[in-house]
Amino acid sequence: MSGAARIPRAAAETVLATRLAVWGDPIAHSKSPALHAAAYGVLGLDWKYDRRQVSAADFTDALDGLDDTWRGLSLTMPLKEEAFRAATTRDAHAERTGAVNTLLLGRQVAGYNTDVGGIIDALSEAGVTAVRSVRILGAGATAASALVAVAELGAERVEVAARRPERAAGLLALGDRLGVAVASRALDDATFDADLTIATLPSGTVLPAEVAEAMAARGGTLFDAAYAPWPSALAVAWGDGAVVSGLGMLLHQAVRQIRIFRRGDPLEPLPREADVVAAMRAAL
């Protein structure tokens, strides 16, 4: 990567590296600045976290333009694949999914995928700690994170339902690497009973009523990664069935991001982490 020189990792701990942001396109709706500000307040960190609209085409120039005051970035759509390519090191979840949603800046640009852990943590909080059969709606970067997450929860078979089933080819290959049987179907052609349905469709997606009702009848618990507007149309269609909002994923992936920004380890708990999580939840 060309452009601005990166500071050594040790220097990233100094007071200079205090700027962070979430990038994406669109980005005005993002709740990440409020979440991070709440956490930094509890931790007593004088860090500044903003949002910036950055397109995929502008990502490289924007990243190269950052100076040594920048500590890290959160990335959302459509930048997760761009961030993966920009990272000089990557954690296991990033390598498996081909997506990075967190960059820790320094002499090296370290890439992480905290969406996988965020999904696992959100499901665990809702009482879902093991699954066997799963339906994933959508075939993008979040779907890849969902597939890795359910594999770690013990899933044996997964059906990917997408408007264009051919887009799921990468997920079928990922399933082979994970040891999970993955099949793809059209979005209106769900074929088996699932313990869990994970929707990774764009916010505001409305499926035909008969399709949503059929999924709800055979889909087990619904985890909808979308959270605005809430309840989503799919969550409404689930009726009395168990539904988990994507706000839980947003919260818990951000906790892992803050661990990374503080010490470079998504698994090292924060000081007073229960208080941090409570403040972040209140900010949602």
List the helices and strands and how they pair.
Blueprint: E1 19-24, H1 32-43, E2 48-53, H2 59-64, E3 70-75, H3 80-86, E4 89-90, H4 92-97, E5 102-104, E6 110-112, H5 115-125, E7 133-137, H6 141-152, E8 157-162, H7 169-178, E9 181-186, E10 196-199, H8 209-218, E11 221-224, H9 233-237, E12 243-245, H10 247-263, H11 273-283
Parallel strand pairs: 1-2, 1-3, 4-6, 7-8, 7-10, 8-9, 10-11, 11-12
Antiparallel strand pairs: 3-5, 5-6
Helix pairs in contact: 1-10, 1-11, 5-6, 5-10, 6-7
Task: Please tell me about this protein's structure.
The chain has 284 residues and is of the alpha/beta class. It folds into two domains: 10-113, Leucine Dehydrogenase, chain A, domain 1 (Rossmann fold), CATH 3.40.50; 117-247, Rossmann fold. The chain has helices spanning 32-43, 59-64, 80-86, 92-97, 115-125, 141-152, 169-178, 209-218, 233-237, 247-263, 273-283; strands at 19-24, 48-53, 70-75, 89-90, 102-104, 110-112, 133-137, 157-162, 181-186, 196-199, 221-224, 243-245. Helix 1 packs across helix 10 and helix 1 (32-43) runs antiparallel to helix 11. The protein is globular, with a radius of gyration of 19 Å. The two termini are 35 Å apart.
Distance between the termini: 35 Å
The CATH class of the largest domain is Alpha Beta
> What percentage of amino acids are in beta strands?
15-25%
N-to-C order of helices and strands? EHEHEHEHEEHEHEHEEHEHEHH
Task: Supply the number of helical segments.
Answer: 11
SSE-based structural type: alpha/beta
Mean pLDDT over all positions: 93
